[in-house]
Amino acid sequence: MGSFLFFLALGLAIIPSIIWLFFYLRKDSHPEPNWMVLTIFLLGAISILPAVGLEKIASYLFRNSIIILIASAFIEEIVKFVAAHLGTWKKPALDEPVDVMLYMIIAGLGFAALENFFFLLDPTLITPLHLVEVSLIRFLGATFIHALASGTWGYFLALNYFSNPEKPNKKRLHFWTGLLLAGLLHSIYNLSIIIALKQESFTLAFSLIVILVLIFINIGNFRKLKKKTASFKKSN
């Protein structure tokens, strides 16, 4: 790959994440510090490195391709969570529930950006048109699923803001429910894409339905958190 295609691939890998990033940031009535957004984004991108290592271990331990696919989805959700957690640990910028969900999404978009770049380095993509086509497909699919799955888990983590600190079981329930839902939705999407590439196109439509459902879930969750936050502040 020549230098022009390399830098084109880099730009096309980042642009989808940047577009979705601005989309979500506009939904936050209290804008986050730019340095925090950049930090979480970069940590999310870097988190793909341990994810690749862990996925290789999973592929070695498990012989069933479906189990490997599910394990990979959960691994990716966990490393994105760790990235968001490390970036926001004891930071004053994390001052309201919706921030938890937002920073999880930002970590997911960072992960997707570097993943997109690795995909676009494929030596079979030899023309700018090929790169643009793959980037567009990932813009509508893979980039979005990373953000939406992370945001789904982020919503359940944000619910801990309203939980009674004397009831740690509720917090654990939110944590594991969010992880399970995010991992399963991610797994379903990945499986539908793989089947679509091998067999029938209707599974591609199914993957788009998964994304649309997640869009509505995330938008609804944003609104719920804002309302719960307003009510919580009034009652305290």
Secondary-structure class: mainly alpha
Q: The biggest beta sheet, please?
A: none
What is the string of helix and strand elements?
HHHHHHHHH
Strand percentage: under 5%
Shape estimate? globular
Helical fraction: over 70%
Unreliably modeled segments? none
Report on the structure:
- The chain has 236 residues and is mostly helical.
- It has one domain (3-235).
- Helix content is 82%, strand content 0%.
- Helix 5 (97-120) runs antiparallel to helix 7 (142-158).
- It is globular.
- The mean pLDDT is 81.
SSE layout:
Elements: H1 3-25, H2 34-46, H3 48-61, H4 65-88, H5 97-120, H6 128-140, H7 142-158, H8 168-198, H9 202-235
Helix pairs in contact: 1-5, 1-6, 2-4, 2-5, 3-4, 4-5, 4-8, 5-7, 7-8, 7-9, 8-9
What labels would you give this structure?
single chain; 236 residues; mainly alpha; 9 helices
In short:
The protein has 236 residues and is mostly helical. 82% of the residues lie in helices and 0% in strands. The chain has nine helices and no strands.
